[in-house]
Amino acid sequence: MSRTLTGLGVSPGIAIGEPVVYENRPISTLRITIPSDQVEAEIARFSAAVTATVDNIWENRERARTEMGEEYAAIFEAHQLIATDPSFVEPVKRIIREQRVNAEWATDEVVGELVARFEALPHAHLAERKLDVLDVATQILKTLHGLDLGQLDQLDRPAILVADDLPPSKVVQLPMDRILGFALESGGPTSHTTIIARSFGIPVIVGAQGLCEAGRQSRRVALDAFEGKIVFDPEPAVEAEFASRKGEYEEQQSQLMAMRDMPSVTRDGREIAILANIDLANEVELARQWNVAGVGLYRSEFLYMQLSPNLPSERDHLEAYRAIVSAMDPHPVTIRTFDLGGRKLAREVIGPSEANPVLGLRGIRLCFSQPDFFRTQLRALICLAGEYEAGRVKIMFPLISGIEEVRIARLLVRKLTEELRGEGRAVRNDIPLGAMVEVPSSAVMARELAREVDFFSIGTNDLIQYSLAVDRSNELVARLYRPTSPAILRLIAQVVEAGRAEGIPVSMCGEMAADPLMVPVLLGIGLESFSMSPQAAPVVRALVRQLSYRESVDLARQACRMSTAREVEEFLLERLAISLAKIKIRV
Ligand code: PEP
Ligand code: MG
User: Fold this and answer.
1) Confidence category of residue 521, pLDDT binned at 50, 70, 90
2) Is 70 exceeded by the pLDDT of residue 569?
3) Which atom of ligand 1 is nearest to the CA of 465?
4) Closest ligand by atom to 473 CA
5) For this structure, is 509 an active site residue?
6) Quick check: CB of 299 below 6 Å from ligand 1?
7) Which ligand sits nearest to residue 298's alpha carbon?
8) Chain segment 407-445, per-residue pLDDT in tens
9) Is 516 close to ligand 1, i.e. is its CB under 6 Å away?
10) Is the pLDDT of residue 510 over 80?
């Protein structure tokens, strides 16, 4: 029987296909006493689950090796060692035998002891190894519980991924070419999972409860991220309707592709720069395909996530960045130093868990608290910049909340530049150093901050989160996350004005830069550089070509004077209806 659930569409598109359910939440285990004559059978059941898990890890390892490279395979090798380690396997068997209990319970007991032992270790990165143990244990428990093993890594055919929670560390392992869409119980419009999916042009709906249960009971699912609608086992007529709308959307996308070489210039001659945000290296191809004018944000933390559990060496950094800069030739590339923390976890970097990670040790704070990691990355970036002409490589610091942080970062760059020069490396003193403006305190102090850096990039994903006190990854408050809030518009206008007054370029790399409803306002505020997921570039280009700069200035002025987000939203929808309809954009 057909069943419809609704959530919030956060990455546009329509998908129809088979659901694959992925549940990330812990499995609860019951203690069941078994008769003594079944003890050996229970041990055999446990051994079979271990074998199946090891086989599965092996397959993942081989796939990672061929599809992503040797470093990724290492993750799975570590898991294989855990699953076969006698100090894990033997105590489970002993508990089954001695206590006459089910394999699930015995596994849980041993894992609990191992985790406690890891947690007691003095070094954070060793303590965090417990996550590997838990990962392997979950796979074994899933097999024992009769749940499908490792669906996520095994996706061998196109499917719609239905999940309760899908952290970015899992997304980076997905075969994106086989994902038709995401339907997630958690997440938000600017959570990193959403951002990555959007880059790949994959539709996403978040915040619909009961998805996993519905997904498990269904054979087919149709998802419309424009409407936030997910229909499980749709009636043929409904599926046909989704298919027809999907066709229209694809047709519109190919029309936009035909405009890829046209300049991003308004009707009255104001030119803007469209740049790309890159998370995963293979997005560079998309950026080139959509003919962007450079990379406005490379989120280097994804390199850490992809190489986890290993840390990138100076050479790893250099090679990864060089590939991007060379591929983007002759355009500039802005590389942001690692913004781990928050929901972007790399257990080697982050110590114990925090009660409020988004307000905790993330961004530049984490860079400073891990001087060795930061130094390795900065040395690589300085060497990289030395390989290219001036301005091709820019370094940007995340989560700047005060001027002191910028001063320290600058000093570090200067010190390391001298150190590298002393080692005989070709380095330059004129690498542009910029700050992300994504903490309200920086927006407020933008004038003073602008005197300390070479450029700004406004990170609206965090700026909105911190200004409106709305967790960007929390589906419960996703509807309160309003880029149209006049408070946000005024903060942005202040930053753009500060950049203009102090003579430094200002770009925007938050998702707002690609929001068709907001682009005209940003243009009117005076923003000239928009950095976005490559997939969004053609829509923004087409839209800019419809707009008049003069009219946009008036539009922005009026919007900034309004009192509520709703007022702004209604005003923009009305004023922009014609421009948006002309390029068939649905907002
Ligand atoms: C932002 O906060 O807007 C931004 C671009 O950074 P991230 O999304 O990586 O936090
Ligand atoms: Mg940010």
Assistant:
1) very high
2) yes
3) 2
4) 1
5) yes
6) yes
7) 1
8) 999 999 999 999 999 999 999 999 999 999 999 999 999
9) no
10) yes
Pinpoint the residues of the chain covered by CATH 1.10.274.10.
Answer: 36-145
CA gap 112, 124 in Å, rounded: 18
Region(s) of the chain under CATH 3.50.30.10: 3-24+151-235
Residue 459 Cβ contacting ligand 1 at under 6 Å = yes
In this structure, of 114-123, 356-365, 448-457, the range with the lowest mean pLDDT score is 114-123
Burial environment of residue 419 by CB neighbours within 10 A (0 to 12, 13 to 18, 19 or more): middle
> Tell me: the pLDDT tens digits for 539-551?
999 999 999 999 9
Output the DSSP codes for 47-100: HHHHHHHHHHHHHHHHHHHHHH-HHHHHHHHHHHHHHH-HHHHHHHHHHHHHH-
DSSP secondary structure of 220-235? -EEEETTTTEEEES--
DSSP state of 360: S
Residue 512 Cα: closest atom of ligand 1: 3
**Residue 269 burial (CB < 10 Å; 0-12/13-18/19+)?**
exposed
pLDDT, tens digit (0-9, with 9 covering 90-100), for 258-288 = 888 899 999 999 999 999 999 888 889 989 9
Q: Write out the H or E segment, with its range, that includes residue 16.
A: strand 14-17
Q: State the pLDDT at residue 391.
A: 97
The one-character DSSP state at 535 is G
Query: What's the CATH fold of domain 3-24+151-235?
Result: Glucose Oxidase; domain 1 (3.50.30)
CATH superfamily of 36-145: PtsI, HPr-binding domain (1.10.274.10)
pLDDT recorded at residue 149: 40
> pTM value?
0.76
Q: Please, what is the end-to-end C-alpha distance for the chain in angstroms?
A: 31
Residues 6+ apart with CB under 8 A from 456: 434, 435, 436, 437, 446, 449, 450, 495, 498, 499, 504, 505, 506, 507
- Taking the CB of residue 98, how many other CB atoms lie within 10 A of it? 10
The answer to whether residue 192 is catalytic is: yes
Q: What is the amino acid identity at position 299? A: R
The reply to whether ligand 1 has any atom less than 6 angstroms from the CB of 438 is yes
Residues composing the chain: 587
Return the closest-CA partner of residue 160 out of 19, 7, 11: 19
Give me the helices (H) in 70-227, please.
70-84, 86-99, 103-119, 124-127, 130-144, 151-154, 168-171, 192-199, 211-216
DSSP one-letter code for 334: E
Residue 458 CA, closest ligand 1 atom number: 3
Please report, as a single letter, which amino acid is at residue 112.
G
Mean predicted confidence (pLDDT) in 153-159? 78
Please compute the mean of the pLDDT values over residues 495-515 and round it to a whole number.
97
